[in-house]
Amino acid sequence: MKSPIAALALFGTLAASSAWAQAQTQTQAPVSGATQPQSPRSPLSGAANAPAPADKPVIPPTGALPELTPANDLRPPTIALPNEPVEPYLLTKDVGPFMVLARVFKGPDAERMALALVNELRNDYRLPAYILRTKDYPGRSAIRATPPTVPSEVMAPNTKMPEKIRTFDEAAVLVGNEKTLADSEKLWREVKKLKPKCLQGMSSPYWWRTGLSSAIRTTNPYVPAQLLFPRPKDRLVVLMNTGLRSIANCPGSYSLQVADFSGRSTFQFNAQELPFHLLPDLKNSPLRKAHDDAERMAEKLAKAPEIRRLGQPIYVYHDRTTSKVFIGSFNSPQDPAAAAVRQQLVLDAVPLAQKNKRGKDAVDTMIVPALALTDLRDIKTKITN
Question: Domain locations in the chain?
């Protein structure tokens, strides 16, 4: 068995010989007329040394970019365009949210050309088609935050291009009323194959496109992004609203809020610095107190003679930050019965809180009826299974 010292000596000898050989190679000058050794060539070395092919210049040699084709140079439509009002075919937020952008029209006849395509898609192909105008889309028709409906003298006289010109001549045709991505993809593949007859009588700068082959998938711009892919329901909020007076049991779509109790949803403390017996008690948290206050008010209001004469039920709603109390069930935000209920509640707010006359039946907090009814449709989707 070799000793470690012998192994180290052998390693040092080999390293020194390699360094000496490299130094000799670097210091030796090439001999005149001698053939220098060539390194082995790679099969791709010839291609690497060859000059790269030159691309044709995109910009003309003069350096000036070509002008855009004016809209006036396009041929006018060769078909009879509809003259009916376009308003019944405009896109609304109730459609979709997943749709297909079939075609975009520009020019003075954009709305009428879009209407012709919508009519053909609806009548011949039985597809739900709608029109989206640029001037109707938020933020696209304003100049320096000036609404398009203000008088002309309101606009600044020094407004320059491109804000000097408003674009009122652009209309897009959207197809579909799909609720999932899979359904929108199926519809998209179907729309791309269509070749409406009306498009043959309309000129376009994109002459190579046939029919609706350039259609793309999109979403309804009026639908908020958080509603495209709704989050799963909060299990804690669902469990908190399982009582008999839960707002989920309200048969109507609207109700009148009369109280709002706020609570703390989290604790900010350092558990390592506090002893165990001083840690906050979750049963006595402000959020729990808000829950109990709302339930207690609902019970007292249900027993009050003034509320019974109204003939309206009492409901509560709890989430992770607040607890609310509602009175009444209505099917329309302009229900005349709701106005009468609110007016009477304003008159009864003080008597319901008088402890010297009602004693323990008086509400602990005075009710404050809201100015408008609360839409319960979004709330019910969060707490119903």
Answer: 74-146+164-227, 235-383
